[in-house]
Structures are given as structure tokens and as C-alpha cells.
């Protein structure tokens, strides 16, 4: 994952490298300021597959994601799925023209991370008057210039997350130039609520869905109440503790309500393997033991490392969002010193249910609101009012568990189209075109004008993992306990190993990632009193120590083989 609101695709080619053999590369020059008051131009790199036939322009997310670098990967994926020639371009301020703000770029961020004091302000000062030229309104006209340069009378447009917002705005501004729309992880035309109230409420929905049909009965009676209690406590005094991050290292972690919202969005939208541990972590934290929860916080933060500006520009990201988002303080030209009062005036009259299971403080101080409240005053024309989409074939896709761009926004946008088909993918998070197998069939059928036919109904639900704190909390035979300890510890080790070469066990020991994907567990103690050692290769074989003293092998059909010592 690059960041919230972005394609989950690794860069395949750096901007400036030689044009791939099966592509045509061109540069489209656009004015920095279309009013002409400020001189200057931008050269936007464009990549398009060679050949004949309709063109599909794939729009990047973020905002801020460079697309030319991932163009060949996307073309290999989307071309066969859609039957179109795929084109991408680096939007202004991204990729080859990336806005560079070192104060933000060196940080590990998501949309909802609260940046340290001074970093947002330093970025705004660095950009100066150019802050005004990175709104979506500018990118809409850039996209029209790219379409004209490609020589296509009309194009299909596919956007993911922020790319859906740009696609919608372009379709409204140039309806005669769009032949088909695909919107994945939908940002509606009214844009994201700066106080993220739909996303806050979605956390309860997602926890209830994970725990449906008694799936959490061994963990907690009410995971949503656990989350609400933990948030309340964290906003009174941040949860803190030392997380084992290596064989001999610990890192101090602290998290408040806005921080919990940030990582919860990562769990549900991008890391279902971490979300599977959330009910147990919340229940334990609510019972006075935050260790597992703090571990999940650390793993979620490691899943969002700092990235180069050409991959995702956090300067552009901030400039665009703070130009586009509706705010209670009268727009981006307002005096930053006056904005806090308008936040209180907006949120204080609202009932607690507007934010539950989170709270008013989390809503007011989430990363979006905090960042744009601190952004320097900038005069930018407001976005147009939302309106109907053109009557072209339109497919909207959204993960049911996506807290980044929650389902209500997709439903609102679908209602603006007379031709829309909305598919909500069960148990899925963000960016479902690239992240969920069953969506490929949906997209193929859509581009062939065939009925979608009960799409994605079988997308599996992750298992909520009942993780006890100690072996003494578990009941069952030695054989059954060894099997369960091994499964839980392996699931935790697999999740932790994706963030670094080495990572500490929750209670003791450590995990090591070696070549070709093998994991080695060194007395990895997820459950106190039951350290697990062994290698997780093609055939996981581990030893569960302590009083269980058992070997567990996973090479047999059905239940794993257990040999007691």
C-alpha cells in the first residue's frame, strides 16, 4: 500500500526512463495558471499503449500519486480486463512534476495522520503563491488537454479513490468526451467530509460485520462498545507502552482517538490480516492491557512508510485537499487563526451518535481537519456544486468495509447517474479493482455490456482471531491447545513480517523474514507461556514450547498433525 486513497500497485518504471517498447510516450504542456495572471507551464508525461482502438485513461489516487511509473503494470492488468488501450499520465504536482515538501515527505503518513507541528505550515510556505494552482479544477482541464493530445474523440475513464472524484468532475465538465466511467472506492462530488463522520461511524459497522453470527463470542460480547471505551480513555490520556520491534529492541508507542481512527482505517481498508486481531486487542485494552492493541498500531503505521515524492507527493496531496474540501471556516482563503472557533461551532451542537463509536474530539482533530486548519490562507475558486453525471455506462465499485471512502458516498454518487450500476463488495476494503479477485469478472462483463449477475457474493469474510493473553486462559486438550496456539502465532507472525525483516513477538521472542518468503520464529510468544519456534516455508513445522511441548505440522489435509513430547 502506498497510502490511503491510492492505487495499491508497486512502481514498475521511474519517470524519465526510456519509453517501454509497447507504449507511446509524449509530453503535454499545460499552463500553471489558466487565468494567465501567473506565468509558467508544466510538462505532464503521458504513457499510452500502442495500437488502435478505444483508450481507457486510468487516474491516480492520493491525490498525489504518480502514474507513469505504474503504467506498464496497470496496462498489463487492465488492458485484458477491459479490451482497451490503457493510458496514464502524471497529474500536475505528481510524478515528474512532483511538488516536494521535505517537511511532510520524510514522514510516514496517511490521509488521516496528524502531521507534527510546523510541518504543514512549512510546506505551505515553501509552495508560496503556487499553492493556488493544484486544485482538482486545474487537473480537470489538464485531463482534457491529455485527451486531445492522444487524438481520441472520446475516452473511457477509470479512477480509484481520489481518481474517482477527478473522473466525476471531468465527466461533468466535458460530458461529450466520456464514453464510459468506472469509479472504484468512490469519492462523491461533494467530496470527503473534512470531519469524516461517515468513516467514524463505519468503524462500528465493520466490527459488527467481522463479529457477525457469533464470530467473536470467545472474545467479547460487544466489540463496538470496547472500541468506544478505548477511544474515550485514549482521548483522556493517550494509551502508551513499549512494543517489541526486534530481538532486543522496544519502541515507545502512544496513541489517542485520532490516532486510533487513523490505524483503524488502515486495518479495515488495507490490512484485513491486522483487522482480524482488532476485537481481541480492543477487548484486552478495555480490560487494562493495551499491549496487543499497541502492537497493531505499530504494525499499521509500518504499513505506511515514507515514500519518494515522485511516487506520492504529500505536498500536492495537501495542496489539493485543502483547495477542494468544504470547510466550516469559509474556504481556504480564511485566516488560519480564526478556524478553530468554526470547528467547535460546527461540531458542538451535534449528538454523540454523529461520531460513534468514536467521539467529537476525534472528529475535530482527525488528520484531514487538522491539516487543512493549519494550511496557509490560499485563494482558490471553489469546486462546482454536485450535479448529474452524463448518461454513459457507469460502474461504481466499493468495498463494504472501506473506511477510507465508505459506502454511503458511493450510494450518493450512484444516485446522480441514470445509468449507474453499483457493486458493494462484501468484506472488502479499499481499491477493489486491484485488491479483490472477483471484481475482474465484473469489470469484464461491464465492458462487454453484459449483466453483472450477483457479483462478488462469495468474497470470504476474514476470521476474527480469539487471542488469549496467557496459556492459562485457554481450555482444551494439549493437542487442541497446541494446534490453536500454533495457528494464532503463525497468523500474527505472518502479519508482522510484512513490515520489516525482523520484528519482536508480542510477549517474547522474535520473527525473522528470510529469502524466498520463509519466516523463522525464534521462541515467538504471542500467548504468554506458549513460545513457538520453527520455519514457515511451504510446509510449516513448528514447536510449541512451555508445558504444551508439542510439534505441529501443517502438511496434512484437514487438522494439522500434532505430536506431543
TrEMBL record:
GO biological process, alphabetically ordered: proteolysis
Molecular functions (GO terms): aminopeptidase activity
The keyword Hydrolase belongs to this UniProt entry's keyword annotation: yes
Keywords (A to Z) from UniProt: Hydrolase
Superkingdom in the source lineage: Bacteria
Recorded family membership: Belongs to the peptidase S33 family.
Domain Peptidase S33 tripeptidyl aminopeptidase-like C-terminal: 368-449
PANTHER family per record: AB HYDROLASE-1 DOMAIN-CONTAINING PROTEIN, HYDROLASE, ALPHA/BETA FOLD FAMILY PROTEIN
Hydrolase is among the record's keywords: yes
Pfam family of the protein (one): Abhydrolase_4
Residue ranges of every copy of the AB hydrolase-1 domain listed in the record: 80-186
Protein name per Swiss-Prot or TrEMBL: AB hydrolase-1 domain-containing protein
Family matches, as InterPro entries: AB_hydrolase, AB_hydrolase_1, AB_hydrolase_fold, Pept_S33_TAP-like_C, Peptidase_S33
Organism: Capillimicrobium parvum
Amino acid at each position: 500500500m502506498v497510502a490511503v486513497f491510492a492505487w495499491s500497485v508497486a512502481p514498475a518504471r521511474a519517470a524519465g526512463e526510456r519509453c517501454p517498447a509497447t507504449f507511446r510516450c509524449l509530453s503535454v504542456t499545460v499552463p500553471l495558471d489558466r487565468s494567465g495572471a501567473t506565468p509558467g507551464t508544466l510538462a505532464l508525461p503521458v504513457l499510452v499503449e500502442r495500437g488502435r482502438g478505444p483508450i481507457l485513461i486510468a487516474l491516480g489516487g492520493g491525490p498525489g500519486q504518480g502514474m507513469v511509473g505504474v503504467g506498464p503494470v496497470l496496462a498489463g492488468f487492465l488492458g485484458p480486463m477491459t479490451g482497451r488501450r490503457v493510458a496514464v499520465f502524471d497529474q500536475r504536482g505528481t510524478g515528474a512534476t512532483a511538488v516536494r515538501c521535505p517537511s511532510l515527505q520524510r514522514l510516514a503518513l496517511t490521509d488521516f495522520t496528524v502531521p507534527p507541528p510546523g510541518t504543514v505550515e512549512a510546506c505551505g510556505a515553501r509552495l508560496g503563491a503556487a499553492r493556488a494552482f493544484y486544485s482538482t479544477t486545474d487537473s480537470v482541464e489538464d485531463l482534457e488537454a491529455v485527451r486531445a493530445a492522444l487524438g481520441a474523440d472520446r475516452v473511457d475513464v477509470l479512477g480509484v479513490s481520489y481518481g474517482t472524484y477527478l473522473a466525476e468532475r471531468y465527466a461533468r465538465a466535458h460530458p461529450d468526451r466520456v464514453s464510459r466511467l468506472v469509479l472504484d472506492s468512490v469519492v462523491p462530488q461533494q467530496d470527503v467530509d473534512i470531519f469524516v463522520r461517515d468513516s467514524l461511524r463505519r468503524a462500528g459497522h465493520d466490527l459488527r460485520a467481522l463479529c457477525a453470527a457469533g464470530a467473536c463470542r470467545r472474545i467479547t460480547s460487544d466489540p463496538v462498545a470496547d472500541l468506544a471505551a478505548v477511544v474515550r480513555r485514549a482521548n483522556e490520556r493517550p494509551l502508551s507502552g513499549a512494543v517489541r520491534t526486534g530481538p532486543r529492541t522496544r519502541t515507545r508507542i502512544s496513541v489517542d482517538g485520532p490516532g486510533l481512527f487513523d490505524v483503524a482505517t488502515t486495518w479495515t481498508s488495507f490490512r484485513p490480516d491486522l483487522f482480524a486481531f482488532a476485537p481481541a486487542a480492543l477487548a484486552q485494552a478495555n480490560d487494562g492491557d493495551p499491549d496487543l492493541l499497541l502492537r497493531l498500531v505499530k504494525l499499521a503505521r509500518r504499513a505506511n512508510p515514507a515514500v519518494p515524492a515522485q511516487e506520492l507527493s504529500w505536498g500536492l496531496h495537501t495542496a489539493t485537499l485543502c483547495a477542494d474540501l468544504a470547510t466550516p471556516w469559509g474556504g481556504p482563503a480564511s485566516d488560519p487563526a480564526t478556524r478553530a472557533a468554526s470547528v467547535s461551532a460546527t461540531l458542538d451542537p451535534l449528538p454523540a451518535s454523529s461520531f460513534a463509536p468514536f467521539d467529537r474530539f476525534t472528529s475535530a482533530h482527525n488528520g484531514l481537519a487538522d491539516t487543512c486548519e493549519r494550511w496557509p490562507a490560499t485563494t482558490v475558486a471553489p469546486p462546482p456544486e454536485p450535479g448529474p453525471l452524463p448518461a454513459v455506462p457507469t460502474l461504481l465499485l466499493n468495498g463494504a468495509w472501506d473506511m477510507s471512502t465508505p459506502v454511503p458516498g458511493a450510494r450518493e454518487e450512484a444516485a446522480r447517474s441514470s445509468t449507474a450500476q453499483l457493486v458493494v463488495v462484501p468484506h472488502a476494503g479499499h481499491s477493489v479493482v486491484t485488491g479483490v479477485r472477483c471484481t475482474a469478472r465484473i469489470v469484464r462483463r461491464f465492458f462487454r455490456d453484459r449483466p453483472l449477475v450477483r457479483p462478488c457474493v462469495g468474497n470470504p469474510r476474514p476470521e476474527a482471531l480469539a487471542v488469549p493473553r496467557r496459556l492459562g486462559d485457554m481450555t482444551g486438550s494439549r493437542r487442541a491447545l497446541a494446534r490453536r496456539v500454533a495457528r494464532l502465532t503463525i497468523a500474527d507472525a505472518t502479519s508482522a513480517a510484512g513490515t520489516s525483516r525482523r520484528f519482536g513477538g508480542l510477549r517474547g521472542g522474535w520473527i525473522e523474514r528470510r529469502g524466498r518468503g520463509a519466516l523463522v520464529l525464534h521462541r515467538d510468544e504471542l500467548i504468554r507461556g506458549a513460545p513457538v519456534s520453527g520455519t514457515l516455508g511451504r510446509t510449516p513445522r513448528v514447536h510449541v514450547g512451555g508445558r504444551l511441548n508439542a510439534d505441529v505440522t501443517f502438511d496434512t489435509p484437514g487438522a494439522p498433525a500434532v505430536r506431543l513430547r
